[in-house]
Amino acid sequence: MEAAGLVKELTEARGPSGYEAEVRTIVRKRFEQHADEIRVDPVGNLIALRRGTGSTGTGDARVSLMLAGHMDEIALMVAQVEKGFLRVAQIGGFDARVLFGQEVVVHGTRELSGLVVSVPPHFTDPADREKPVPLEKLFIDVGLPPEELEAAVRVGDVVTLRGRWTPLAGGYAACKSMDDRAAVAVLILCLEELSRRRHDWDVYAVATVQEEVGGVGAVTGAFSIQPTLAIAIDVTFGMQPGLSTAEAVKMDAGPSIALGPNFHPLIHERLVATAKAMELPCQVEAISGASGTDAWAIQVSREGVPCGLLSIPVRSMHTPVETVCLRDVERTAKLLAEFICRLEPGFAETLVTRDALAAAAAPGSGGPAT
Predict the structure, then answer these.
(1) Contacts for 161-167: CB closer than 8 Å, 24+ residues apart
(2) Is 211 a catalytic residue?
(3) Which of 185, 216, 237, 296 has the smallest number of CB atoms closer than 10 Å to its CB?
(4) Which of 211, 212, 285, 338 is catalytic?
(5) pLDDT per residue as tens digits for the range 226-261
(6) Residue at a domain's end among 127, 161, 195
(7) 157 and 251 part of one domain
């Protein structure tokens, strides 16, 4: 299980929310090596099924686990073509402070290299010179004269950051779209590990779309699959200067296992217990409300799905230099595979029995059951 090459391939690919085709092609080739069935649903989710060896669950339904990691990345969209330059709008949650001076790719009738620029500070109002340049005052320069630019680029064309994989010391690496391609790598590595082992539960590995604009793929994927339970894999804030331990988790200390109303406490407990049994480092992360992940959408699909969340610590999130420790990616995949292999067919029933719910609600249990 080696993460570096896989994460590099995934992060350098381009896949803004709603335009994930390039990433989906890469992931599909990887999924095909370890899955029994693969399909793409109408919104673009890539769904791989690896069948378990256990007996069926209640009635004719088999117990199944949905794993979700999103393929899409934050990006920009052309909002206006103005005098040989491009004005842009956001796809997802960009911080305009990180855009100025960035290299981008404009996906028009052909790919065009561009730069995010603004009016020189010499012509800026003195009161604004010390402030970040807002998005509405940024524009993209691709070097074409107005008439050629208007022929090559239309309003609505997508603009992506030019990501460059940068290996760092100590097993770290930086690139764009670690959120959430690092988690997609976890899905692939987990399936690879499961191909060598026995597991009772059916496993649906879902590379979801449009998480950055509202969790669209998680909504439709969970509705279609109807999993017995689900685990989302995402990123969380890694510790760096300016953040406190209440806001971020340690890097190179394993995945964080979320606890809060979005997550079933017994799934959380089982994940923690599995990590301890493996002597694999992990962290507990308290999320008191909406998690902002695919788990938030999956939990309320149909009659409800018990959920868990594993998160990979990332520094400088939603910037062109999102940074991970590759060991954390590998640890997350190992923990997930071990959790799956330890799932007995009857575990699902324990999540909803009266005794289990009462135990989960007891003081010291981590909170009330969902």
Answers:
(1) 161/75, 161/102, 161/103, 161/104, 161/105, 161/320, 162/102, 162/103, 162/104, 162/105, 162/113, 163/11, 163/12, 163/14, 163/320, 164/12, 165/8, 165/11, 165/12, 166/321, 167/4
(2) yes
(3) 237
(4) 211
(5) 999 999 999 999 999 999 988 999 999 999 999 999
(6) 161
(7) no
